[in-house]
Amino acid sequence: MITPEQILDANILIVEDEKVNRVILRRILTSGGFHNIRTLPNATRLIRQYEAFHPDLLVLDLHMPKVSGFDVMNALKKAYPDDYLPILVISADSDDKVHLRALSSGAKDFLNKPYEPAKVLLRCRNVIETKLLHAEVQSKNVDLERIVRERTEELHKSRLELIQRLGYAAERRDTDTGAHIVRMSRYCEAVALAMGMSAEESEQILNTAPLHDVGKIAIPDSILLKPGPLTKDEFEVMKTHAAIGGGMLANSDSAFLRMAENIARTHHERWDGKGYPQGLHGEEIPIAGRICAVCDVFDALTSERPYKKAWPFDEAVKEIKKMSGTSFDSAVVDAFIKALPQIKAINKAVGHEPLPLSSPE
Q1: Number of separate domains in the chain
Q2: Tens of pLDDT, residues 45-62
Q3: Residue 343: CB partners within 8 Å, gap ≥ 6?
Q4: Where are the beta strands (DSSP E) in 5-116?
Q5: Domain holding 38: CATH number?
Q6: How confident is the model over 100-142, as pLDDT tens digits?
Q7: What one-character-per-residue DSSP string does 97-154 give?
Q8: Are residues 139 and 182 in the same domain?
Q9: What is the model's pTM?
């Protein structure tokens, strides 16, 4: 709601080459309660004055020497293509074609000379009120956009935290440490970037990789926590975690969760087709699954478990190279080698100590 006080406080800029008319317009506006009034005898410096004064009303003479009112309106439209231009044109010309041309050029209203004070005040108030209402709507739109952006970011953060905690819960059943999913997912991001994937795609892999072993939630403790080697039958049960995890995440409309499903379902597939659960071969395996396969094995090799000691970093790298073209996509392995400085830094920064339950990151 625009108040009368706001209208009277408006900035008014008058551009008129005839001094008498400038004086008349100022007197009329002053008598109507307006006080923030500036006048210019020509339009040669108008853009600079417009930028400095930010008028809520521009009273513009159409027919001026050197720079006409039409020239001014064209220049303002180019300078402020998205703004509401509060232009009230004035002219002694009563030709309807001139009026139509002025309105189509950007004028919001038209005043004929000689001036009738009541009409001047009424039309000035109308243009000013419309300008102030437009500014108010724009301000509210900016606030709404900010609120929507903040809520969207909050929702995104909540979703990521939920995914991290779900992955962390599955990992805690297996290793008593959440560090594996942190290292492994960051390795995945580094490899994806080294392969030339976009920052957005790489970040999506980073944020979905924590769910790669979510299907282990359904594996019995007697198998999942067994300190020694698994029997053949036990291993067959263990292998079902990939299909179970994929099923848990399946049929989502979210591209984010579809990638998480692909990773959970395919991170144990092999390039040579000898993996599980589907025995996919080569590029049948989604790229996110191929990346996670390398990073998951590497982190497993360099991590200590009740049934094995951690491999030295360089020995684990040699093993990954050895498996290139059989277990792993050679292009992914090449990217892994390219990203080794980042992977070594992640390995050192995250470490292998258990992360507290309150900090899954």
Answers
A1: 2
A2: 888 889 899 999 999 999
A3: 187, 190, 191, 298, 336
A4: 11-15, 36-40, 57-61, 87-91, 109-112
A5: 3.40.50.2300
A6: 899 889 999 998 888 899 999 999 999 999 999 998 888 888 8
A7: HHHHHHHHHT-SEEEESSP-HHHHHHHHHHHHHHHHHHHHHHHHHHHHHHHHHHHHHH
A8: no
A9: 0.60
